[in-house]
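Appendix B. Extra example for self-study. Work through it before the problem class; the solution is given directly after the inputs so you can check yourself.
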Amino acid sequence: MIDKLIAKIQKTHAPVVIGLDPMLSYVPEHILKKSYQEFGETLEGAAEAIWQFNKEIIDKTYDLVPAVKPQSAMYEQFGVSGMQVFERTVAYCQEKDLVVIGDVKRGDIGSTSSAYAAGHLGKVKVGNKEYAPFHEDFITVNPYLGSDGINPFIDVCKEEKKGLFILVKTSNPSSGEFQDRLVDGRPLYEWVGEQTAKWGEGHMGDTYSYIGAVVGATYPQVGKVMRKLMPKSFLLVPGYGAQGGQGKDLVHYFNEDGLGAIVNSSRGIIAAYKQEQYAKFGPEHFAEAARAATEAMIADIDGALQGAKG
Amino acid sequence: MIDKLIAKIQKTHAPVVIGLDPMLSYVPEHILKKSYQEFGETLEGAAEAIWQFNKEIIDKTYDLVPAVKPQSAMYEQFGVSGMQVFERTVAYCQEKDLVVIGDVKRGDIGSTSSAYAAGHLGKVKVGNKEYAPFHEDFITVNPYLGSDGINPFIDVCKEEKKGLFILVKTSNPSSGEFQDRLVDGRPLYEWVGEQTAKWGEGHMGDTYSYIGAVVGATYPQVGKVMRKLMPKSFLLVPGYGAQGGQGKDLVHYFNEDGLGAIVNSSRGIIAAYKQEQYAKFGPEHFAEAARAATEAMIADIDGALQGAKG
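Solution. Structure tokens for the complete assembly:
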């Protein structure tokens, strides 16, 4: 799947992932109204609104980008109905040939990690049959529990040709509370990054490992260090746009081959119509606004990468 | 909710939580067969089997223990159908007046953590209505992202009178890879524990904070240190039984008031009928075996605590 992700990045010239993190407050009134008319102001109604919102954004952007990243929390908040729409969103994106990164940040140990891996990336056996419940292509995982937590995910990735992005340095202001603490003179995230590179070594696609890392856009100096520390690991970079990162800050997250990173924007794209810059589209054309914001983001990042080359 | 947990521990003399972590391999053949006959070898069929298994164990043990801990992964592996049974299990346990600790180990930042908190502990607003999707009483959360990740959960706990157990030192062999790394001469888990105690300070029940910590049973010396470091934090202690911990090793996880910790056993209870010691019950009476194993665990831990007093 890492090879597919790379091929699609090369084809689209867009090392960009759209974060499908819908909040009800992003969904335009006309969609909410229709959905509530059909299902009432219920969890089903909310989930249906989210689904219609997602679908229109996917329809208007799938040809521009290689990948999407639905955020599990935004679906779980609507309970079982929300998880239904999570699954439906994954399936629909895959129909559109998008690579789907499930931002689930799961992490546990042993048989429990195996169960998460089966549910999200692999298959579960029921009697003599097998099912792939949520069937994302990649997921994000939390490393705090160490190798016992990661290896069961890697085993499933190997089997299913899927991949992981392991949280190394997150984009939020307080990420430093634990991640930046010095261990033998180096911040913890470097140790986690180094370990992630080791986990990745035996699990290579054609040019990059399918065990990648999450490194936030909001700490460009960290990106530069991590890029060198884990040259074969793909970096998933959150924190662009709404959280403050810009294309010019991100060139060092990439290798000289122009690859090695994929930058996420969520709110900045899916709720673009709420920004002054894209307000002209109006709520009726929220998905066109998302497309315009995606194009602007691609131009920003691709421009910065081309500039860095020249 | 921490006060209810404590009152129930005092009433039952059982600082014990049953981990509802069902794997299909634990479910006796007669339940599987019935469920597959009704729903086929499908995810629904698997989920129904898990539900029947849980229900019988709950019916046979609810009067012995204050709390249960369903492990999200074991339900997510069966997709949406699994999550339905997760919700149904939470609801059924609450009908039986059990405190439910959702072992979800979620962790993200800002609005994403808020969404997880709403979905698992709080309420989500849909139009003018409010819903409590998975409605656990406590959940486990991962601290790797720092305060930005934890505070949104705490806000919901405060509002809803619920609680958290933050992963501090987990019970698995490789937990030390990152958790034990020395930061200014002290292992990282001590810093996380100290921070957890701080998070808990402003969020007190009558005698203990509703912001607790996960500290594994497999490292008794750590338990002793953490008990002192976070005197007002309740400790959720996994790793009893199947993972190796015993009652006598656990006395130092408790304060002198005999409180302050609750010990989890999952496989050791719910799959007790597969152990030699309880094999006499047979698969037909798996839930009686679970009850016997629960009684033995309570006797082991309560005995050790009484012994420590005397």
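Self-check: Chain A is about 45% helix and 20% strand. If your reasoning did not lead you there, revisit section 3.
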